[in-house]
Amino acid sequence: MQQLRAFCSLVVSFGFVISLTACGGAGSDAPSLGQVTGKITMDGAPLADASVTFMPEKVRASASTTDSEGNYELIYIREEKGAAIGKHKVTVSKLKDEKEVIPEKYSGGETELTADVKAGANEFNFDLTSK
């Protein structure tokens, strides 16, 4: 009986260690990140509840949603803030009644918005126009 308890304790401990290594952040092969914040406006007014996505060429995109003042802070994965260092295409999207309300030149795959993320703190503000 005592051997069974010892075996069960070992199995539980091993499982716990494995779960810690599997859930820890973006992992050892994560790219270097820069912290990215900013503000999105449309025709000079803050754009609330819009999705902001920074898309680099080779690694995972980072995303956020703007607050009521149009401010955002990018998340790379789970709770890890930031975006991969380097050049990004940036899209801004907002749906209303299941329709995109942001012009395609900002929300589509051929967005004209770009950003070059550096190490450390970065601030990228975008003033979009509805026309």
Terminus-to-terminus distance:
76 Å
Instruction: Round the Cα radius of gyration to an integer and report it.
Output: 20 Å
Major sheet summary line: 6 strands, mixed
What would the average pLDDT be, to the nearest integer?
84
Number of helices, where a helix is a run of at least 4 consecutive DSSP H or I residues: 2
- The H-and-E topology, N to C, reads as HEEEEEEEEEEEHEEE
Secondary structural class: alpha+beta
Specify the overall morphology: globular
**Quaternary structure type:** single chain
As a percent range, the share of helical residues equals: 10-25%
In terms of DSSP E residues, the strand content is: 35-45%
Secondary structure tally: strands: 14
What low-confidence regions span 5 or more consecutive residues with pLDDT below 50? 1-26
What does the model show?
With 131 residues, the protein is of the alpha+beta class. It is 19% helix and 42% strand. Strands 1, 2, 5, 8, 13 and 14 form a six-stranded mixed β-sheet that branches. A four-stranded antiparallel β-sheet has the order 4-3-9-12. Strand 10 and strand 11 form a beta hairpin.
